[in-house]
Structure formats: C-alpha cells, structure tokens
Design a protein that fits this description.
about 375 residues, mainly alpha, 22 helices, elongated, disordered N terminus, disordered C terminus
Length: about 375
C-alpha cells in the first residue's frame, strides 16, 4: 500500500536538479542523447511548474527557494547555459522560463533594494554563466532563448559590467565583479566585442536578437556605459562604424545608424558626443549616408549629420569639410527627402541646418571647446 501512496508524491526540487544535471551530461554523448533528451524535457517541465505554478495552484515560495539553492549547489545554471542548443525546442523554452524566474527570485525576507541572490552569485562566483549565455549566439538553436535570459539579467548593472569587461577565452575563468577595472582599456577580444560579428554575420533571426541585447547593453545603464565608451572610444566607434554602419544588411545598417543617433543625443553621453563630432572621418561617413539609395538610411543618417552641423564648437577638420562642400550642401539639403512635408520637426531641422551652413566662415576657425562637466578631461581619454 505504501508503494501506491508514494507514487503520487511530488519529487523534491533538489532531486529534480540532480537528475537534470546528470541528464545534461548525457546529451553531449550522441549515443545516449535521444533517451536523455526525452527525460530532460520532463525534468525541465517539472522545474517550470515549480517556479511558475499552474492555473490552479500558485508557486510555493519555499519550493522555489529550494530549487534556487539546489541549482547553485549543483552548478546547474552553467550546465544549462552551455547545453541549451542541444535541447529539444520545448525544453529550450522551459529552460528560458526557469532561468528567468530564478534570476528574479527574492526570498520573502530579502531586502527589495538588493540584487536578487542569484545575480549576486553570478557576478561574484560564477560569471562564466553570463559569458556562456552570450556565446549562445554562436548557435541558432540557442540564440533566442539565451537572448531572453540575458536581457532579464542585464536589467542589473552588475551583469552588464561582467559582459563589458570580461576578456576571457573559451575555457578560461571569466572576470569577477571585484576584478573589474573601469579605467583599463579593453583589447577588443572579450565577449562584448563579439556582438558586432553576431549582429553583422549571423542569419536574420540571430542577428535581430543579438542587436536587441546589444542595444540593451548600450542604453540601459547610462553611467556605466558612458564611462566605458569614454575609456574605449576609438576601439568602440571604429568597430561600430566599420562593421555595423557599413553592414551589407539593410536592417542592421538602418538600426545601427538609429542607435548611433540615440547614443550621441543622450545627455548622459555629452562628452562622448563631443569627441565623436570632432572627427572629420565621422562626418564624411554621415555625409555618405545622406546619399544612400534607401530613404530610411538617409533619414537616420540625417539625425547624426545634424549633430555635426549644430555643434557651435566645430573642430577645424569638420569646419573644413563643411566649408569645402558648402555650395553642394546648400543645393542638396532643400531637396533632401522633400516628400516628408508632413514631418514638421524634420522640415524645421533641415531649415536650421541650411542656415547654419550659410553662416559658416570662409575659412576654418580654431576654437576652444567650452567646459561642461570637465569634458576636456574626457576628451584627453578618448582622443
């Protein structure tokens, strides 16, 4: 009789985690993979019920807490992050759900202002999990579930710091939060820098998801990103301009130009913007975008071009290009995207730029940029 009663008893979270870990080790073996995949799907489905509950029964905080502790003790999140591309489709979706819930989980007694326990665990003890999630973009099967998990994690600035500052190679230990050195320039071979190629060279679905994550990294935590861009200015914008703005993909090119405009026009990035618009090469790139065959590329390029023209303290290099091209610009701009007559802001901005170009001196004038939040200090760093 005891046998029949025990059959209905739900398994403990720790048992499910241990079984899942053992099965994950088996799916890397092609001979054992088919049987392991089926059983893994069942285990992950049970984990999803624990963290999410059912329409009839809400999740138990104690059960979820036990599951979170077991995943940390067994290092299950690392195994999941590096194996997700091998899982069947539904199991990948369940992994995405379980992972995201675990990242957000706070015990009842936990202070709301503190990062969730698993976030702290990742940045101080197991940052390799975050790096492996980024490397999920190397496989089309894992790109989107890893992207969803990453964007959940990137809500926390400490996770963004790991992605930005890690420079480990595959198989090496990733950087711990305590080892992050914001003022140290990057080599350009860490996991963050691989997003440029994942966006530019992947299939459409992977590229689109990688871009969404990349944009989150660049725009969500402003003070962190402003410092990073100032320190790594030349390397970042060389990659951004040469890979993303020059991309053969229309979608990548258009989205990247729009993102560039957002970065430059964000007040938090004032010093970065001033350094960018001092470059004659950057201006030449924007002027080429104005003549692109595709109108939306022209339109997004215009919003970057206007930053150069509207800057009251233009560098000599920028002045020289605008002065040398003054007549052509004055003929070109009034007719530029002249079908956007219902866009009053665009028409006003275009008229303003025409007036600014008309007022340019005959020869470049060397000006000293005024001080605002000590931009000269930042310029010395990024120049």
């Amino acid at each position: 009789m005891a046998f029949f009663f025990n059959r209905g008893r739900s398994r403990q979270p720790a048992d499910i985690v241990r079984t899942t870990k053992e099965l994950l080790s088996r799916i890397h073996d092609s001979q054992n993979a088919p049987k392991a995949e089926e059983e893994l799907a069942k285990q992950l489905s049970q984990m999803k019920v624990i963290v999410q509950g059912t329409p009839e029964v809400p999740p138990s905080v104690d059960q979820v807490h036990a599951l979170v502790q077991a995943t940390i003790q067994e290092d299950l999140l690392f195994d999941l992050s590096r194996s997700i591309h091998l899982l069947p489709f539904e199991a990948r979706k369940d992994t995405q759900t379980v992972f995201s819930h675990i990242l957000r989980f706070r015990p009842n007694s936990y202070a709301a202002e503190k990062d969730p326990p698993v976030i702290s665990y990742l940045v101080h003890h197991r940052p390799e999990i975050i790096v492996e999630l980024c490397r999920g973009y190397m496989q089309s099967q894992s790109a989107m579930p890893c992207g969803v998990i990453l964007r959940e994690a990137l809500k926390f600035d400490v996770i963004t710091a790991i992605v930005l500052y890690d420079q480990s190679s595959e198989g090496e230990s990733a950087i711990r939060l305590s080892d992050v050195k914001p003022n140290q320039r990057q080599r350009g071979d860490g996991v963050f820098w691989r997003f440029f190629d994942w966006i530019d060279k992947s299939c459409f679905e992977v590229s689109a998801d990688a871009y969404t994550t990349f944009r989150d990294i660049l725009t969500r935590h402003k003070s962190l990103m402003t410092s990073y861009l100032a320190t790594n200015f030349e390397l970042f914008f060389a990659r951004f301009n040469n890979i993303l703005i020059h991309s053969d993909s229309y979608v990548t090119k258009r989205q990247s130009i729009k993102l560039l405009g957002e970065i430059l026009l964000d007040r938090a990035n004032y010093n970065v913007m001033m350094a960018y618009v001092e470059s004659g090469d950057n201006l030449k790139l924007c002027m080429k975008l104005l003549r692109d065959d595709r109108k939306m590329v022209q339109y997004e390029g215009f919003h970057v071009f206007k930053v150069f023209v509207a800057n009251p303290n233009k560098s000599v290099a920028v002045q020289r290009i605008l002065i040398n091209n003054r007549d052509r610009l004055l003929r070109f701009l009034p007719k530029f995207l002249d079908d956007r007559t219902d866009d009053d802001q665009f028409m006003d901005e275009k008229s303003f730029l025409v007036r600014q170009i008309e007022l340019l001196p005959k020869e470049p004038v060397d000006r000293t940029r005024p001080t605002r939040d000590s931009p000269s200090a930042h310029t010395a760093t990024v120049a």
